[in-house]
Batch of 4 targets.
Target 1
Amino acid sequence: MGQLLFAFFLAFFIVSTTLAQPSFPALTGRVVDNAHIISPNEKNNLEEILAQHEQKTSNQLVVVTLPSLQGLTIEDYGYKLGRAWGIGQKGKNNGVLLIVAPNDRTVRIEVGYGLEGVLTDAITSQIIQTIILPKLKNKDYSGGIADGASAIINVMVGKSIGYQKSDIYNDFKEEPVLGIIFVLIFIRIIIGIISSFLLVLFSILSALGMPFLLNRFEKILNKLGLKFGIRKGFGVGFGGRGSKGGGGSSGRW
């Protein structure tokens, strides 16, 4: 009888624990719009900016919209979602979630431990109250989310909260282009120097009447090459199981 009672309570505990765990959406990108409230154009812009920001700083900001909080508070759901997704790099805990639940009329900025000193509770509350909520109240979800994400990025890169979104977009879009141009110019200069050196070397070998060495050298050069790789994806460490929790703020409209 005792064993049967123990088995019953164990099964009850397992079922209760399972039912208490919310289901989480799949981490399909840096913008997970499960509530379908972000315009396609704004979603693409956000994806690009968040990717650029992560590559430049290693900080990981993910935007998620939810049709339901499944009976939980947004604070509890946000904490569990951050841990389930593993936002932030391991050892740095530098992940941030911007969560919007339109049906529950609530929003939260969940901040990992590693960014608490930058994205303080006071600053995240200011972003929510002065930037995000006014647009969410007018059902401008795309605008509120985009401006909120830009404000979070502004703070993390040392700019003011009110820095214009168009400027932050240019920052991340133009600087890599300038860097690429500089690298291409540098490579062109190096190739020019190497070409000049090889031309002189070939001339010397030809003048010395050394066809064997010339042919041998040419074969070696033909075997050499440079490989350039462009890696796609979420970037280094995205979903790197950084521990979650720390700070953040919430708001309702």
Target 2
Amino acid sequence: MEIKVIGLGGVGSTLVRTLARYLNFSGGGARLTLVDGDSYEPKNQARQVFGDFGNKAAVSANELAQSFPALSVRAVKDFVAAENVERIIEQGDVVFLAVDNHATRKLVSDHCARLGDVTLISGGNEFTDGNIQVFINREGQWLTPPLTYLHPEIEFPEDRNPAEGSCQELAESAPQLIFTNLAVASAMLEAFYALEQGKLTYSECYLDILSGAKRPVLRKEVG
């Protein structure tokens, strides 16, 4: 199984450690690829899980390879962009998308819609609420809708892909809470496990950590 984790920030850096532990001891022979062009810095320590400073994909891949020797781990030290998306996401991949901008979500969703066989699990959050989406494409048939369906903020993004942004834009982001990051990461992993077990019954799930609400929704638009 080829698994790609794109974005190693508050959600991704938490998700990948639990995912790696599960894959290492499940005996499934998966290969895990981490993708991020950003770097861990002192300011990230309040929300992101890492043991050293430097490129997020490289640092996380090195730490996971040491902790889980049965797991094949590699790093792609780039942001996903139009120039490399075809090389990074390929047929048969399971993709965890944990980025903080709609431009990248649209880019990845559109690419996955063109492939014949791919699973995309995307998650994001505001300060105390968030959502995940699951896009399943099998032999060119969309079993669940792409990320853009009923989400005009993704279909028509007003932000920019970080590969195109300035240093100032990359440094600016809305405040986030580590507890919400954890909740979104957990919801993404829950969807992955439900799909593995053939029991996934939803394509989106909305959550709010203040109320404890969790609302799964099944979208039925298909391609």
Target 3
Amino acid sequence: MGQRFLRSRKVRDKIIAAAELSKNDTVLEVGPGEGFLTEALAAHAGRVIAIEKDMRFVALLKEKFCNAENVEIIEGDILKIQNSKINPPVGGQNSKFKIVANIPYYFTSRFLRLTLEAEQRPELMVLMVQKEVADRLTAKPLHMNMLGLSVQAFAKVKRIAPVPRGAFSPPPRVDSAVVKIFDISNDFFEKHHINQKQFFALARRAFAQKRKMLSNSLGLKGDTRRPQELSLEDWARLAETN
């Protein structure tokens, strides 16, 4: 399944610090694997709900945390849970929680989209992602992309630390980075009175032809800009007039 298990305590400490955990926090961990990060989460948070897809690790985790009253191990696929419109098992509709995870690289984009568009969203997320994904998430105009725009429309994104390949076992073929996604809300859409579906449909049309000027890709007469050159506020103005 592409698992790469974090082994660096230094990196783990940076993840925990970025999550700003207290004993009042509920943390949803996705893909805990062997429980290396779970141990630290349990020591700092009031409740940890770890969702693991691989039944082999579920058995290991349940044995490892059998005496930890604040740790709950659930066998399941987080993408199926999100797709089925079932809220993460953290409590009621208004329950607050945080997501801290070393997620498999192959579903990072899909996981982020489903999480940010869900009715029940986390207060913040601290995620281990591929360095290339971190670059896309934190992109600014001239280098903007569909993933970066999709996340930045809902939240602020901050790169916390680079993570070398040697921090994992087995080492991946690429470098990684820890990112923090916070201040998650619909404020951007509400402020500009923008329909989310129409906004993203417009952006997808433009990025599908990212080498073309907006005058060609979106039919905006005289607009010589390309989609990667636009800021979030530029996209808001486009959405308001289209």
Target 4
Amino acid sequence: MLTRNIRRMVIAGALLVSLVPMRSWAGPNLLINGSFNQPAQGVPPGTPTSFTGCQFGGISAAADWTTFVNSCTAGQNHLSTVLVPSTLPGTGGYMIHVITDGNANGIVQYATFEEPKTLASIWMYINRGCVTVGTGDDGHTGPDATFCETGKWFHLINVPNGVSPANEVIVYSGTSYLASVGADFYVKNAMVVNAN
């Protein structure tokens, strides 16, 4: 009888633990146009956007996303984006292609949400370099996760925000001892959800 009760408690505990991650992902995507299917106004799919500068940014090819360049070294302060047909298996529409010559440059979505705790999920395909993803508070947002494997789709999932409150998500070229300066990558199906 005691063994049966212990077994029931273990099973009940396992079910409770398995439900926690599911509940933490409950709720809608806090990002707008996380699929990247909607082009920026006046920028038809296939039309690139470009920015060269320092500590500033511009529009991206995707609606509700902007670009930002943190690199200030000449030759490393350029960024371009373009919407191209998605190659992520099981999806349609578009993905965004980001190319930059420097580190910590990429795409941003800011002030579409404000939450104390979030979890981020994103699909990426890296041609060159590393990609960092971060969710945080405006200019205090840093990399929460970095991925450097090239040549295949990768699903970065359940990444908690490193800075609170979370009101911005970044997808930037990252640094690694394995990577050269800058990055060339695709992004599809970005998601940030409330983790409270």
